[in-house]
Amino acid sequence: MSIPDDVRDLPLCIPVASQLPHAVGLAYASQYKGEDSVALVFLGDGATSHGDFHEAMNFAGVFQAPVVFCCANNQWAISVPVARQTRARTLARKALAYGVTGMQVDGNDLLAVYAATREAVERARTGGGPTFIECLTYRLGAHSTADDPRRYRQEAETAEWERRDPLPRFRGYLEARGLLDAAAHDALDTRLAQEIQASLAQAEARMEVRPLAIFDHLGPLSAELRDQREELVRDLSHASSARP
């Protein structure tokens, strides 16, 4: 599905760290055209172990590209802890080698992350160059459906970080300041759930599934491809008739 013209966003990059050179390139292009735009790119601690990270940081530092690197250091790159990824005391210190401003914040503190990001964006927008923000947080769940974190980390560690979960933490902050109560929270939760479901329904309606389209741009089909297409037609017809 294409991204709307009025949304300045890019789709997810599956290969780790491959989005970083893209972000720096966009930032440099904006700088070259005299715009005041800032590229904001997100990465994990595991991405700092990839070559694309170092290339992007170096280019951003040399050309003072208006880009902000926001790194969620959740302590684990799948099953590899940060201690096995780097000898640096912090990931933020890596920025120094490239002439980039480095910051470390409590990634489970919403306001701290907001303040750091806002400062970095303003710095980039006013010609102060790039910033690397290390947000200290934790991955409570599994990395993916194929991952079992119980095989490589202690449950006590997870339990300790669970007590620092940013969502109940920020809710407590708002309630303590009289900005939120249980009724308002429940109403907000319901409204957001409805908005999410409506957005999902809209997206699914636009994403028409056309399996046979894989043959549309192959030119004249060979006998083998025609056989494959006919087989797919039969499979789709069988699957459709088997539905309740």
Span between termini: 29 Å
Helix content: 40-55%
CATH 2nd-level architecture of the domain at 19-154:
3-Layer(aba) Sandwich
CATH class of the domain at 19-154: Alpha Beta
β-strand amount: 5-15%
CATH superfamily of the domain at 19-154: Thiamin diphosphate (ThDP)-binding fold, Pyr/PP domains
**Remind me, CATH topology of the domain at 19-154?**
Rossmann fold
Low-pLDDT stretches are none
Helix and strand string, N-terminal first?
HEHEEEEHEHHHH
Summed up, the helix count is: 7
- How large, in whole angstroms, is the Cα Rg? 23 Å
| Order of strands in the sheet with most strands | 1-2-6-5
Average of pLDDT: 93
Shape estimate? globular
Coarse structural class: alpha/beta
Major β-sheet profile:
4 strands, parallel
In total, the number of strands is 6
Nutshell version of this structure?
44% of the residues lie in helices and 12% in strands. By secondary structure, the protein is of the alpha/beta class.
